[in-house]
Amino acid sequence: MDVVLTGDRPTGRLHLGHYVGSLKRRVEMQNSGNYKNMYVMIADAQALTDNAGNINKVRDNISEVALDYLACGLDPEKVTIFIQSQIPELCELSFYYMNLVTVSRLQRNPTVKNEIQLRGFKQSIPVGFFTYPISQAADITAFKANLVPVGEDQLPMIEQTREIVRSFNSTYKEVLVEPEAILPENSMCSRLPGLDGAAKMSKSLGNCIYLSDSSNDIKKKVQSMFTDPTHLRVEDPGHTENNPVFIYLDAFCKDEHFAAFLPAYQNLQELKDHYQRGGLGDGTVKKFLNEILQSELKPIRERREVLAQDLGYIFKMLKHGSQKAEEVAAQTLQEVKTAMGINYFNGNELNK
Ligand code: ATP
Ligand code: MG
User: 12 near 155, Cβ under 8 Å?
Assistant: First the structure.
C-alpha cells in the first residue's frame, strides 16, 4: 500500500496553482482511502531558507496554509498534517544525506537555478537554500513515502531524492524507499501560469488568485489578467495557446459550465475556435472564467471562514500531527543510523 507525502511552504496562503497542481489530487487520494499513510507537511524550515529575516511571515502563514488544507477537504482524521521544524530528526537525516550529494549536482538542479535567479540572490545564495533539495529528500524518506503528488517544478527535487536513496542504499543498507512524483493528469495543471502570464503562479511572485480571495478580488484579478497581446480588437483572430485565460479554462472548465454560464457554446473547443477565428472579445471569456472560479472557490472560502473562527483547534491538530510524524521519523532515523553503523550505544553496552 502507498505512503504519500507532500508539503507546501508557508510563505503565503495557498493559490490556484497549489489547488490544481497538488491539493486536489491529495484530497482525491485521501477520499479514495487507497493508501497506507498520508502525510502533509507545512515546510516552515524550508520557507526560512529564503526568508531568514522574515520569521513572522513564515510563522503567520502556518495557520493560513493549514486553514487552506482543511477548507479544501483534507481531513486530519485521515491524513497526518504536521510542521516540518517540529521534527528535528529531519535535520539529522539531511546532515547525513549531505555527504551523498556533490556541490556540482546541486548547482545543476534547474528549479533551484531558476529560483535563485527569481529571488535575485546572485552570488549571495544562503547555504540552506542551496541545499534545500537535500532537506526535501529527508522529508520524503523519513516517512518512507513512495508517492509524492506535486507540480512540475518539483520533478528535479524528486529525482534528487531518488539519487540519494540509491546512493544510501548501495553505500550502507537497503533502508530507504525510492519515491515517485505524481503529476496532475491534466498537463495544464502541472504548472499553472501566473495572472501576469509568468511561467508559474507563485506566492513569491505575487501573481496569484488565492483560495481565500474574496469574490470581488477574484473578479478584479480575472479582469486584469494577461491575454493574447496580438488580440487588439474583438474581430482580430486570437491565440489560445500561451494565453493564461485559456490555460485556466483548460484547468477548470467542464462542459456543464457552458450550460450554466455561457450557453451559446457547448464546450471549450467551440469557444477556442471562435477566439482563434476572431469576433470573440476577451471580456466575454474572462467573464466566463470568473463565473467558473467563483463557483469552484465559494465553498472553499466559506468553509475556511468557519474554520478560521477556531485557530485553537488548528494548532491542536498541528501539534498532534507533528507528534505522530515525529514518531515515524525517529524510527527511520534509527534505521538509518544503524545501517550507517553510527548507532554506537545499546543502553550501557557498545554496539558491535
Ligand atoms: P514559493 O514561491 O514560496 O516557492 P510556491 O507558490 O512555489 O511558493 P510551494 O509551497 O513552493 O508554492 O509549492 C507547493 C506545491 O504546489 C508543490 O508541489 C508545487 O509543485 C505546487 N505548485 C506551486 N505552484 C504551482 C503552480 N503554479 N502550478 C502547479 N503546481 C504548483
Ligand atoms: Mg515553490
Answer: no
Element (H, E) at 47: helix 44-48
Quick check: 145 and 177 in contact, CB under 8 A? Answer: yes
Residues β-bridged to residue 345: 350
Is pLDDT of 205 > 90?
Answer: no
Ligand 1 atom, smallest distance to 190 CA: 29
CATH number of the domain at 2-191+310-340, out of 3.30.429.10, 3.40.50.620, 1.20.1250.20, 2.40.160.10? 3.40.50.620
Residue whose CA lies nearest to ligand 1 atom number 2: 204
Residue type, 246: F
Say how many Å lie between the CA of residue 57 and the centre of ligand 1.
Answer: 17
What are the grid coordinates assigned to 61, written together? 502563514
User: Which ligand has the minimum distance to the alpha carbon of residue 40?
Assistant: 1
Digit-coded pLDDT (tens) for 241-258: 999 999 999 999 999 999
- For domain 215-306, give its CATH number from 3.50.50.60, 1.20.120.80, 1.10.3720.10, 1.10.240.10: 1.10.240.10
CA distance 168 to 98: 11
Full-model pTM: 0.94
> Quick one: which ligand is closest to 181's CA?
1
Q: Which burial class, exposed, middle or buried, applies to 342 when counting CB atoms under 10 A from its CB (0-12, 13-18, 19+)? A: exposed
Cell output for 309: 473562527
Share of the chain above pLDDT 90, in %: 89
Q: Are 218 and 19 in contact (CB under 8 A)?
A: no
